[in-house]
Write a structure and sequence with these properties.
4 copies of one chain form a homotetramer. By secondary structure, the first copy, chain A, is of the alpha/beta class. The first copy, chain A, is 31% helix and 21% strand. The first copy, chain A, has 12 helices and 19 strands. Bound molecules: zinc ion (8 copies).
C-alpha cells in the first residue's frame, strides 16, 4: 500500500469558490490546503464527501462576543459558546469587537478582549476596535500602534447614548484610520432622529417592542450614511457601512460607489428574512426580534437582495448580539419593559450560513458562488484575512465546511449552541446543512459533536486590506 | 381743469410684474395702488416716469439688523441706517431677525426687536424668529403664540457655537412650526466638519481670511441640506434653505423638490458675484469679503444661476450682516486676527437690487420678469407678504421703485448709506439704478435724498404663507 | 352724466394673472385693455362681474382643426365649429396645424389652412407647420421663408405610418428650426415598438379598443423623448414635447431640464383625468376614449400633476382631434373595427378649461394663478403670442373669459358646440364655468349664445419666442 | 523513479483565478486540469514556471475573422492567421461571427463559417450569429434551431447601411432570443445621427480620417443604448452591449443595471488606450486608427476604467477587425479616401492581453484577479463557455497562458502574427508577456513558435448562459 502523502483528504465533494464549482479531492498538509484535484494520492485520514459540497468556512465579520454593552449588560455568550455555535453553523473565522467605553484606554481594552478570546475561542478571530472616546491619546497614539499590531479596523457608532461619536471627533478617527491604513466600520444611524422618536413614542404610551421599529425612522439610516460618506470622502478614507436595512440606504451607497468613493457595505440575515412585523407579538415577546436597525419591509428585503446582486453590498454578516429573554438580558428592566429598556440584538452566528444557503443555494437566489463570496471570500478580502481565509485555494488555511445540500432541518431554540436560549428563526425549515467543519486542518465539528477545545482558535493579525 | 382723482400718478413708465411688462400709468390712492392703465385721469401729484421702469419695491427676506451676534458683537447698523440703505437700493420691505440667544425668553426678544424697528425703520418689515434655545416653553408655548401674532417664520442655525440647534431639538422646532403653520428657515451647514477644519487649519498656522473659505468644506453644505430635508420630510414641514452657495447644495434641493418635498431655497449676490478668491487679499483685508458660507467658484455661480432659472432656488436675498472693518467689527480681535476671530457677514441691503438688475436686466441674464420675481414677488409670496407686497397690482401697497435702466454707477464705499463703511462690490460699474422709491404711496427716496422719517416703516403681521 | 372714457368695462370682478389676484375693473378701448383699477371712469358698455373671476382667455396651443389625417380622414370640425366650441369653453386663441403630407409643398399647405381659418375662425389663431416630408426644398427654402412670415413653430411626428420623420431627416428639420428661430414641437413615441405591439396584438385577436392602450407600451414614450432630446441637444434647438402621458416621460424631461437643455413640455386633460381603464367598454364604444398616446394610470396622473407643479411641464393643451362615433370617424372601418382601424383623437377645445378650473381652482389643486399660467400665459409666452395674448395687462388684447366660480354643470354630449357628437367627459359634474368671453374687446360668448361671426378671428404672426 | 501520474505539469508558477493567487503546480491529464497543488507527483512532461504567472487562457468574445463586410470587403485574416495571433497573445478561446447579410439563409451562413473555422482555427471557438435580415423564417425557424445546435448568441447592428436592424425587426429578434435562451449582443449606435453627421461633414469637405470620430457624435452611443435597453426590458431579454466608448454610455448601463435590468457590457483596449486624437495623422494614415465607435477622450478612458471596476462593464474584448493599410483594406477607395470610404476596424486579438496586463498588473490598475476576470472568466461565464473555459479549475480545459511578468516588449508592426500588417499600438513598451500557451493540454505557443496545426481548434457548442 502507498505511503500517505497528505495529512487529510476530503474526497469527491463538489468544491466551490466564488469563481468555480467542480468535483475534486481537497488535500491538507498541516494547517493548510496542499492540493485540489482528481484522484489525489492517499492521506493519513480521508473524509468521504461524495454528494456533499466542500466550501470555504464562513467568515463572520460582525459579531458581538462577551461584550459589555454601554448600558452595562454583558451579552449572553462567552468566546467559547459563541465560537462553538459559529462552528456548528459552518463559520470558521469571526471578527468580534474590542469595545472601548468612555474613559477606557484602548490598549487595555484590546488586551482584555485578547485574553477572553485566547481562553475561549475554538475558531480563529480578529478584532474591530470600537472607539467611543476619541481622546487625543487614543487617536494619535493608540490607534496607530494597535493597527500596527494587526488590528486593522475600527468601528464607531453614530448613535447609542454612551457610544456615539459626533461629527467632529469622527473626523479625527477617520483621519487616524487613513493615516494608519485601517478600515473604518460604522453603525450609521442618525442619533437625534431616533432619540426624538423614542421620546415622543414613550411619552404617548407606545412602549411595546414593535414601536422600536417605529422609532428608527427610515430616514435615520440614509441620512447617517450620507453624512458619514461625505466625511469619509473629505478624508479619502474607505468605510464599511454595517447592517444596511433600507432601500434608501442601499441607494445612497450605490450612488456613492458610482462616484468612485471607497464605500463598502454589509447586510445581515435579519434584514433579508425578517420584517418589522415580526416584532409585533403579544406582551414583551417581540423583544426577541429587536435589533438595531430594526428589520423593515418585504420591499426592503428585495432591495437588499438586488444590492447584493449588483455588488453595492459586498458581505453578509450576522451582527450576533445575544441577549437572553430573561432578567439577565432582554427583560433586565422587568417582564414588561418599554422598548427603550430592551437590549438590542439577536443571536446569529450559528444560523447565518444555513439561512443563506437555503435561500441562495437550495432556493437558487444568486447561487452557490455568490453564497461563497458574500459569506466568506468577500469579508476575508475586505478585512485582509485573505489569502489565509475565505477561499479554498492551495496554501490557504484549511478552513472548510462540508455541506449536505439535501439535509433538511427545522430550526428550534434548543438546537442552538450559543447561550441566548432562543433564535428568532425558530420554526423555519431549511434545506442544506454543514455536517463537518475544519479549522486549520483540524476537524472541529463532526455531525453534532464539537471536537475543538476552548482556546484552540488563534488571533489573526491583519494589515489594512482594501483600506490600505 | 379736471379734479384730481388719485393722490399720485407715476406716468408713462414701463411697468413690470413677473408676468407682464407694459407701458402704463400707475395711480395711487392713499397707501395702495388704485389703477394701472393708459391715460389715467389726473392725480394730486404726478411723477414723470417716461423712459423709466416702474417695478415693485424689493423684498429682502434675509437681513441682520441691529442684531447682537452670539459672540456679543452688535452689528454696524441700526434699523434706521439699514432700512435707509435698503430704500436707496430700491427695497421697500425687509425681514430681519428677532434673535434669541440661549437663556432668553422669545416673547421678550420679539418685543425688544419690535421696539428697535418701530423707532428706526423707514420701510415696512416683518421678523423671522431665531430660535437658539428650544426649551419646552419656547417650543410649546412661545412659538405658537408668536406665530399667531404674525411672526410666521422661524430661523435656526445648524452651525455657530452658541446658536446651533442639534438634530433632536431641531425636530421639536420643526414640529412646532408644522403645528403653528410657520415657515422654517435654516442656515444649514455641518457644524462638526467646519469646526474640525478650523481646528486643524489654525493649528497649522493657516490663519488668514482666505482660510475661512477652506474651513467651510464644500460637503458641509450639501450634507446639512440632506439632513435638514430628511428631518423636515419626517415632519412634513416646509423649509427655506438660506444662502445656497454650492452646485452640490443646489442639486440636493433639486432632487428633494423632484420627490415632491416642500423645500424652498435662496441664494445671495455674494454667491453669484464673488468667489473664494476674493478673500485672498494682503493682511487682514480679506476679512471684508468673509461671510458664511463663503463665496465659492465661478462654476458654482453658474450652477446657482441655472438653479434660479429652473425654479430650484426661488429667491435672492442680501443676508445683510454688516461689520465695520475696524475694532468694533471685523478687527475686534486686533489688526491681525485669525479668520476664526473675524465676524462673518457683508453689507448687502443697498446693492442687492442694483447688482442683480445689472446682471439680469442690463446684461440680460434671465430678464426683467425674473428679476422682479426673484427679488420681490417670490419672497413676498413665500413669506406671506403677498398680495400686500411684492407686485404692482391693484389693491397692493404702493411700494414701488422707479428705475433708470440707463444710469451707470461705479460703486464706491462712500456712496453707501449703511454704517458698514465699505462694500465688497466697490469698483464695480453697474448699469441701471433706482431713482425714486415709494413706500405705501409715500415717496421715500428721490434721487439722493431720503425723505422718510425714522420709524415711519410699519410691522407686517404675517400668517403662514407657503408653509401653512 | 359723465362722458364714457372707455369702450367697455368689466366691473368689480376678481382679476387674475399668474402673479396676482385682485378685485378691479377692467377697461377696454378698441381691441385692447386700457386700464385695470378700482372705480375706473365709465365706459360705453359695462359688464357687471361682481362675484365673478376675470381671467385671460385660454390659449390652446395644440388642436387639430379641419385637418386631413394621413389616413385620409377629415376630422369632424370646421374652423367655425371648432373655434365656436373653444370660445364657449373660455378659449380665445388657438394654434392648430397646417399639415403637410408627403408630396405636398409646404407653402401651399399653409395657404390652404389660412384660407380655411380665415373663412371660419371666430377667435384668433396661429399655425404650427407639420412637416412630414423633409425635402431639401422644404427644409432649406420653405421653412425659413414661412417662419419669417410668422409661422414660428414646426411640428413633427416620430410615429404614424405616413407622417413619421426618421432620425436623419429630423436632424435636418431641427437644424432648419435652429437657423430660422422656430420652436420644434413633437409627437414623440417610438414607432417601431408601437408597430410591433400592434402587429402581435392583432395577430392574436386582441382587437378591442382597450388594446390600443396596450400597444403603446410605456417605454415607447420615454425612449422617444430621450432620443429627441439627444438630437435637439446636438443641434442646440429648443423643443416642445407634446402630450406627456407617463411618469417615466416626465422624469426624462425633468432630467434634461436639470442639465440645462431647452426642453419644454405639455400634457392634456385626457392624461390628467382619464386612464387606460376608460377604453375598456363593451363593443367598439371604447373607441370614443382612444387617443395617442393613450391615457395611462392614476399614478401617472399624479406624476403629471407634480411635473406641472414643478414646472417640468409648462402647458396644458387640448390636443383636440375630433372624430365622430360613426362611419365618418371612429367607425369608418365598420361597426366592429380593430383598434388599429380607429382614428385616434378626442374632442377637447371646449372642456379643457372647465375641467382644469374644476380641478385646480374649485378643488384647489395648484390654484388659480397656476390655472392661468398653464392654460393661457405660459403657452402664449412659449409660442411668442405674448404680450398680445395670455394675460390681463394694459396694452394686451382684450381676450377675456369671465367665469362664474360657483356655477355647477353636469357635462352631456349634447351640450357641446363642436361637431364630434360626444365628449369623453360626459357625466362629470364640474364647478366653475365661463359665462362671458371676449375676443379683442368683442363679446363673443354671452351665456349660451355665440355672438361672433365666422371669419372674425385673426391670424397671429409670430416670431420665435422661447425658441429664438 | 516514480511512474508519471499526469501527462503534463506546470511547476511552481503563481496561479491566478478571479478569487485567488497562489503558488502551485498545475497538473494536466489529457485535455483537462487534473490537479492544482504543491509538490504534485511527476508527469510525463514538466514545464518550469517558477517566477511566472499561470493564468487561464484569454477568452476573446468579440472578433471578426475571415468575415465579409456588408460593403463586400473580406477582412485581412483567415481563421488560421487570426487564431495564431490570438494564441501568441495568450488567448485560447475566441468567439467570432457567422455573419448573415441580407438575403442569406442563416443555416447556410453558419455552415460556411463552420467550414472556414474547422479548416483554420488553432484555438477553440464559438460563433455569434449576426442577423441582418430578420425574415419570418430566420426568426421563427432558424434562430431556435441554431441556438439548439449550440449557437447561443445573436448579434445585431443598430447602424451600418446594409446591416442595421430597425426597432421593429429588432423586437422580433429580441423575442426569438428570449424564447430560444440566447444572448443578444449589439453594436448600438444611432444610425440616423451618424449618417446625418457624415453627410454634413463630407459636404463641407471634412474628409480626413479624424472626422470619422466627429461623425460618431457622442450622443449616438448613449441614445442607442437607452433605446435598446428599453426594448430589451419590454421583452425581458438579457443583452450584451458591445464596445462601450463614452462616459455617458457607461452611465446609461449603470442606471439600467441599478433598475435590475439584465444588461451586460464590454469595452475594448482601443477605448482604454487610444483617443480620437490618434486619428489625427497626416494624409490618410489616421485610417489605421479608425474603428466604430471611435476612440474618445482621456476622460472617457477614466470613466470606462471606473465602470469596469464597479462591474458595470464585465468584459474586455478585442473587436478584432483587421484591414490592411493598402488597396485591399483601408485604402480600397484609393490613397486619399474620405473617411466614409475607409473600412472600420483594428487588429486586436494579439495585443488585447499584453496591453491589459501591462496596465492592470504591471502598472497595478485593478490588479491581477480583475485582469483574469475581465479577459477570461467573465466572458466565459456570460457566453456559457464556463466551466470548460475561463478559469484554472479542476476539470476545466487546460487552456493556460504562462506569463513572464517581467518581460518587456516594445511593440512593432512586424512582430504581429495576424495579416493586418500594422498595429495601432506600435511603439508602446509593455511589461509582461505570455511565453507559453496551452490549449486543451497541448502546448501551442512556446516562445516565438506556434506548435499548433491549422484546424486543431474545436467548435464549442453553448447553451444560453446568463441569458437562459
Ligand atoms: Zn450596529
Ligand atoms: Zn453590531
Ligand atoms: Zn446664515
Ligand atoms: Zn444670515
Ligand atoms: Zn400627437
Ligand atoms: Zn395632436
Ligand atoms: Zn461593432
Ligand atoms: Zn465588432
Amino acid at each position: 500500500m502507498t505511503e500517505p502523502v497528505y495529512d487529510l483528504i476530503i474526497r469527491g465533494g463538489r468544491v466551490a469558490t466564488t469563481t468555480d464549482v467542480f468535483e475534486a479531492d481537497v488535500a491538507i498538509s498541516g494547517e493548510t490546503i496542499a492540493a485540489v484535484g482528481k484522484g489525489l494520492p492517499p492521506a493519513k485520514r480521508e473524509i468521504d464527501a461524495r454528494g456533499k459540497l466542500v466550501l470555504p468556512g464562513g467568515v463572520d465579520s460582525h459579531a458581538h462576543i462577551e461584550q459589555l454593552s454601554a448600558a452595562g449588560i454583558m451579552n449572553a455568550d462567552t468566546f467559547e459558546s459563541a465560537t462553538v455555535s459559529a462552528a456548528f453553523g459552518g463559520t470558521t473565522t469571526v471578527i468580534p469587537f474590542a469595545a472601548q467605553h468612555v474613559g477606557m484606554k484602548l490598549p487595555q481594552v484590546v488586551e482584555d478582549y485578547h485574553a477572553l478570546a485566547k481562553k475561549g475561542a475554538v475558531i480563529d478571530y480578529a478584532f474591530h476596535m470600537i472607539i467611543a472616546d476619541a481622546t487625543k491619546e487614543t487617536v494619535e497614539e493608540h490607534i496607530p500602534a494597535l493597527v500596527k499590531q494587526g488590528h486593522a479596523s475600527i468601528k464607531i457608532f453614530m448613535t447609542y447614548d454612551r457610544l456615539k461619536v459626533d461629527d467632529e471627533p469622527l473626523l479625527d478617527i477617520l483621519l487616524a484610520a487613513r493615516q494608519s491604513g485601517a478600515m473604518l466600520c460604522a453603525h450609521a444611524e442618525n442619533h437625534g432622529i431616533i432619540a426624538w422618536m423614542v421620546k415622543r413614542l414613550l411619552a404617548r404610551g407606545y412602549t411595546m417592542p414593535k414601536y422600536h421599529a417605529v422609532s428608527h425612522a427610515r430616514v435615520s439610516e440614509a441620512e447617517a450614511f450620507t453624512r458619514l460618506i461625505g466625511m469619509a470622502a473629505l478624508i479619502d478614507q474607505p468605510i464599511m457601512i454595517f447592517h444596511v436595512s433600507t432601500a434608501e440606504g442601499a441607494k445612497v451607497i450605490r450612488d456613492a460607489r458610482g462616484q468612485g468613493l471607497k464605500v463598502f457595505a454589509e447586510t445581515c440575515p435579519q434584514y433579508l428574512f425578517l420584517t418589522a412585523g415580526d416584532l409585533d407579538k403579544p406582551g414583551a415577546e417581540g423583544a426577541k426580534w429587536m435589533c438595531s436597525p430594526p428589520p423593515r419591509t418585504h420591499s426592503d428585503q428585495e432591495a437588499l437582495w438586488q444590492a447584493l446582486s449588483l455588488g453595492d453590498l459586498q458581505t453578509i454578516s450576522s451582527d450576533h448580539a445575544p441577549y437572553r429573554y430573561d432578567e439577565t438580558g432582554k427583560l433586565r428592566a422587568g417582564p414588561n419593559p418599554n422598548f427603550k429598556q430592551v437590549a438590542n440584538g439577536l443571536p446569529g452566528l450559528e444560523l447565518r450560513l444555513p439561512l443563506l444557503f437555503d435561500a441562495m443555494v437550495s432556493k437558487g437566489r444568486l447561487g452557490l458562488e455568490k453564497f461563497v463570496e458574500l459569506t466568506a471570500t468577500a469579508p476575508a478580502k475586505i478585512y485582509n484575512l485573505h489569502p489565509r481565509k475565505g477561499s479554498i485555494a492551495v496554501g490557504a488555511d484549511a478552513d472548510i465546511a462540508i455541506w449536505d445540500p439535501n439535509r433538511e432541518v427545522t430550526i428550534a431554540d434548543e438546537m442552538m449552541h450559543d447561550l441566548t436560549g432562543y433564535t428568532p428563526f425558530a420554526g423555519r425549515k431549511l434545506r442544506g446543512w454543514p455536517v463537518s467543519v475544519l479549522s486549520r486542518g483540524r476537524v472541529i465539528i463532526e455531525g453534532n459533536k464539537c471536537l475543538a477545545s476552548a482556546g484552540s482558535g488563534k488571533f489573526l493579525a491583519r494589515s489594512g486590506g482594501e483600506a490600505a
